[in-house]
Write a structure and sequence with these properties.
Length: 269
């Protein structure tokens, strides 16, 4: 079997990607590298005790992570190499960097429970990325399965920024709520809870006037209190999955009980 041929469901199929020796696309991979550098500098800032800088670097890495994929699609320069490189960059910027940040900032006083929580966060983030890469081959979906790792990292970073916004200094004290939050984020990343991907969102040219007013008010709130806005937005998104799952459970139960007997018999065949 030649290198550019693979087996799919027992039959040979030619790969869609070009061989790597023909080169790689520069622009999207350079942007991915910027995100990787931001994540790495976040680790350095954490080691130096500059936790605010580390949190901001994670948010900047998310900006680059959002740009590289869009630019690759606009310039028709998507490739398997870029997908794999982006995943490795995400693991550093949104897995290792926030894991080290939250450990040094809040979890170190918990001893074994602290580093276990941080390491579990990183491991679940890696599993989340691996599962996403496998599911991405099936095509774009309107919902993510599990909390996306950038959203989990943003939740950690915005929590750190909110702490300093309210006058905190240095590392936090031994707060069990932060330990529970990290374990919760790790669990949500590998869960089957659905999260909106916003891929089906399209902004029409004409909208009601109240939407423009709401956007203007929201923009002023972002400029005035960015720490509160970021924390609120990311925390609500992290909670949206479990809340939606809980609200849908009664409807799913009623749908199963109201299923016609004939349909049930067919399912048993």
């Amino acid at each position: 079997m030649t290198p550019d041929v693979r087996l799919v469901h027992g039959r040979q199929e030619r790969r869609s990607d070009e061989p790597l020796h023909r080169g790689v696309y520069l622009l999207p991979n350079l942007i991915t590298t910027c995100g990787l550098f931001s994540g790495f500098y976040s680790i350095i800032a954490t080691i130096d005790g500059s936790y605010q800088v580390a949190a901001v670097c994670i948010l900047i890495a998310h900006v680059f992570d959002g740009l590289d994929g869009r630019i690759a699609r606009l310039t028709k320069s998507t490739s398997r190499f870029g997908i794999e490189y982006d995943s490795l960059s995400d693991l550093v910027a949104f897995g290792v960097a926030p894991g080290i940040l939250v450990y040094k900032w809040a979890l170190e006083p918990w001893g074994n429970w602290g580093w276990l929580a941080a390491s579990l966060y990183v491991a679940c983030g890696a599993l989340r990325l691996a599962r996403f890469n496998v599911q991405a081959e099936l095509g774009a979906k309107k919902h993510f399965t599990g909390l996306p790792i950038p959203a989990a990292a943003d939740t950690v970073a915005s929590t750190v920024l909110l702490y300093y916004f309210f006058g905190g200094e240095g590392a936090t004290h031994k707060h069990i709520i932060l330990l529970v939050v990290i374990y919760g984020l790790a669990a949500l990343m590998v869960s089957n809870v659905s999260y909106n991907s916003f891929k089906s969102f399209h902004l029409n040219p004409r909208q009601p006037l109240w939407i423009l007013v709401a956007l203007i008010v929201g923009l002023k709130f972002v400029i005035a209190e960015p720490q509160i806005f970021l924390f609120t937005a990311f925390m609500l998104y992290a909670l949206s999955g479990p809340v939606t799952w809980v609200l849908r459970r009664p409807k799913a139960g009623r749908a199963r009980t109201e299923e016609p007997p004939v349909a049930k018999v067919q399912h048993l065949r």
